[in-house]
Amino acid sequence: MTHALLRFAATTFAAATLAATLTACAPLVLGGAAVGTLVALDRRTSGAQLEDEGIELRAAARIREAMGERAHVNVSSYNRQVLLTGEVPTDRDKQQAELIVSKVENVKGIYNELGVMGNSSLTQRSSDTLITGKVKASLVDDRELSANAFRVVTERGTVYLMGRVTQREADKATQIARSVGGVQRVVRLFELISEQELQQIAPQATAQPAAPAR
Question: Is the N or the C terminus of the chain less surrounded, counting Cβ atoms within 10 Å?
Fold first, then answer.
């Protein structure tokens, strides 16, 4: 996987997702499975990747069934840790969404970042999509980081960073995200590993087949 191709994947993600947003405004979306086959490396095990996909699908379906179009909820799972972003009309709905996700198989933890407010506008969601693409492209541009190790989610100008990374990588990625235009806040939801663990993971990640990047 070349550096140029990775950056192309990040920028293509923003353009493709923005186009989809402009043609249809869904009340609930999954956590960004658009760049898919262009990203080959992942520090999660293949089993964890499959479980994350299943968690997102099941959680999204159950929240949609319970809340319908009155809520806009994004479900993003990384290594079985689930991030909920978007908007719900009441505090009760916020807690209900978390309860629904907690009952999904394989979920180990939940970060409930849902806002209690009206659903975000098309303009705001389009802006968030572009910010995500810019952050991903900036991570690809940094030669000291493996952009594939990071999951980027943006909601109302707030960038959430997930991934299995070292403290060094976490700090660098945070700095990069904060420098991107339009970013109002950066929230770190990393699973920190040691530099020694990273050295042990790297050869295994290289040997794994391509997996969807989200």
Answer: N
Domain count for the chain? 1
Element (H, E) at 28: strand 28-30
| Counts for the chain of helices (H) and strands (E), in that order | 6, 8
Residue 49 CA to residue 204 CA, distance in Å, equals 14
DSSP-assigned beta bridge partners for residue 62: none
Q: Spell out the alpha helix ranges (H) of the chain.
A: 3-23, 46-67, 91-102, 122-141, 167-178, 195-207
Q: Mean of the pLDDT values across residues 160-166?
A: 98
Residue type, 55: I
* Of 128, 125, 105, 116, nearest in space to 52 by CA: 105
Query: Which residues have CB under 8 Å from 182's CB, separation 6+?
Result: 127, 130, 131, 134, 157
201 located within any domain: yes
* 173, 102, 128, 6 alpha-carbon torsion, rounded to 10°: 50
Residue with tokens 């030669």: 143
List, for residues 93-143, the tens digit of each pLDDT value: 999 999 999 999 999 999 999 999 999 999 999 999 999 999 999 999 999
